[in-house]
Amino acid sequence: MALGAVPRLRPRLPHGRAADAALACGVFVPVAVGSLRSLIGEREESWSATVVGWTLIIAACAALYLCRRRPVVVAAFVLAATAAYYLVSVYDGPLMVAFVVALYVVAARGHLQAAIALAALTVIATGIGTLAGNHDVNGVAVFMLTGWLVGVVALGWVRHNRLALARESEERAATEERLRIARELHDVVGHHLSLINVQSAAALRRLCKNPAKGAQSAQDALGAIKSTSRDALRELRATLGVLRQVDEQAPVAPTAGLDRLGELVASARLAGLDVRVRFSGEREQLPTEVDLAMYRIIQESLTNASRHAHATVVTVGIHREARQVTVEVTDNGQGPAVADGGTPGNGIRGMRERAHALGGELTAGPGPDGGFTVRGRIPCTNSFRNGACSPS
């Protein structure tokens, strides 16, 4: 917002009990104005009948205060009060408006069958009154009343469906966001913790075998653990900062991408993996989301190869084409990478979700010559913007 600009004030609609009270008062005012001729002018009925009629008007409109909490009960009560009013009073007031509003709320709250039953009961009762000699309502009026009630029920049901669809969309978006956060935390924390676990286990093993000669190796491993834990904390802090969406300028790590592949390979080599990387194809800069997805796929594959498959050699192939980028990670491990409990973990599923979210695909399974192979493909068009292409 520009400096000195005056913010636009938007009217705030009432909520909760205030909205219920506004509904009841909003209906009572026009009904009362339309029924004033029973209090002024020439008398057509006794004062006792007028008092009873106004009591029914106030009761029906006041019941709308509870309409959102007990829609069916309130609508039935308003219908009964409206029917009694038209039987007692000789003045044809607009109290039917209160029942129409209550009927709409019943349908909007999802009680379609109750709304249809109340509307049908109203039409039937009005028709019986017409046949019994009520000359104020004829067949045309009954037909028009039927159309109005059908329309009110239909509008209420449409409103209910729209709100249900909006809630479903919000729940789906929240679920997708939770999955994205879980996937990101898994990739950031899981990889570094796996490397720390492997490096510390290797240091302990060397110290136990040969305490004298293993001291230097243990020192190197502890240095690698220190570096890996620092990277883990930095990336975790950066991820949490994005999730909090804070404004303070906290120190954050650079965005993960293939330009940091060297650091990833170096940490994997400290864990005992012989990692070989091959690039082929074009070398244009990738979009940020594609670059991050490729980095996370390689990161998770290296983690699985070191921690679960017990591999010693891993080959990473990255092929960049005009319309897609492909990564293939192959190891010489003992077979499919599984979690410690013996069941497939969340890593492969997370990699597959990343690829699918960008319109790509990912396969993972035993390689033709043994070991395990992860192959991911993410499409990328030739529409350049600021030197980078956009995912299709």
- What is the makeup of the main sheet? 5 strands, mixed
Task: Categorize the overall geometry.
Answer: rod-shaped
The low-confidence runs, each spanning 5 or more residues with pLDDT under 50, are: 1-7, 246-252, 337-344, 382-388
Order of helices and strands: HHHHHHHHEHEEHEEEE
Tell me the span between the first and last alpha carbons. 34 Å
What is the CATH architecture assignment of the domain at 257-392?
Answer: 2-Layer Sandwich
Class of the domain at 257-392 in CATH?
A: Alpha Beta
Helix content: 55-70%
**Total helical segments:** 10
Computed CA radius of gyration, to the nearest angstrom: 36 Å
Secondary structure layout plus pairing:
Layout: H1 17-34, H2 47-63, H3 71-88, H4 96-108, H5 112-131, H6 139-209, H7 214-244, H8 261-270, E1 274-281, H9 288-307, E2 313-320, E3 324-331, H10 346-357, E4 361-366, E5 372-379, E6 384-385, E7 388-389
Helix pairs in contact: 1-2, 2-3, 3-4, 3-5, 4-5, 4-6, 5-6, 6-7, 6-9, 9-10
Q: What can you see in these coordinates?
A:
With 392 residues, this protein is of the alpha+beta class. Among the domains are: 17-137; 257-392, 2-Layer Sandwich (Heat Shock Protein 90). Helices cover 59% and strands 11% of the residues. The protein has 10 helices and 7 strands. The chain has helices at 17-34, 47-63, 71-88, 96-108, 112-131, 139-209, 214-244, 261-270, 288-307, 346-357; strands at residues 274-281, 313-320, 324-331, 361-366, 372-379, 384-385, 388-389. A 5-stranded mixed beta sheet has the order 1-2-3-5-4, with helices on one face. A hairpin with a 5-residue loop joins strand 4 and strand 5. The radius of gyration is 36 Å and the shape is rod-shaped. The two termini are 34 Å apart. The relative contact order is 0.06.
